[in-house]
Amino acid sequence: MDARRKELGDFMQALRARSQPADFGFASGSRRRTAGLRREEMAQLVGISPTWYTWIEQGREVNVSAEVLDRMARSLKLTRSERAYLFEMADRRDPQASLPEDDDAAPIFSTLLADIGVPAYLMGRYWDILGWNTAAAELFTGWLDQPVDANAPPPNMLRFVFLRPETRTFLIDWEIRARRITAEFRADCRTRLDEPALLRLVDELTAASPDFAEFWKQHDVLERQGGERGFQHPQRGLIHYQQVTLRPVEHEHIKLVMLQPA
Asked: What are the residue boundaries of the HTH cro/C1-type domain, all occurrences included (predicted)?
């Protein structure tokens, strides 16, 4: 038996056992021989036959559709982690995974940024810069040190790299960095490529930057990695940092980027 199918069946059985029949409109009482929902009741909740549901729990070689998994997750009010685990064990893409999320950074992150001594900033789902500290403003002079307009969109890393001419001098090995940034962005947005906001950003960059258009068409995909980053600062000259990117567990669409002097 495939280990993942067995794990899916065991997980579904555990979910069923912990569910209270009365919460789903089923009669409860002493006549029940097992705790939680019966297999027939679970099958009714997710809209499949009891036999089919039983086969899934038994880890048999049957395909479970994303629609069935979605109904189960909704009916049982699974947490985000439980839902992700359910879809992962079933080897299915969660249709809810690409739905837009609130891109606001929690207030605690702003406090955290202020306490970080090295340049640090927060990037959102489309690489908008949601917050930064004084050290980052001093590094990205002419960009992050400018007055914030509450009515304007937040600064965006891709617009900074591809639409500002001075960035080609500021970033050492601009073409290599820009090509990698494009590949990292594609990887980061791989589950959201059909979202309207992302499509608008890609269209804007494609129309305004031949370089971005070329790099995007190459379909390179790279996970965001750390490493040395060089900058030609207008006041400080050539400076180097080691970049580290962290993702808060409770806000997976946000990235905390820190630059440690090399």
From this structure: 11-83
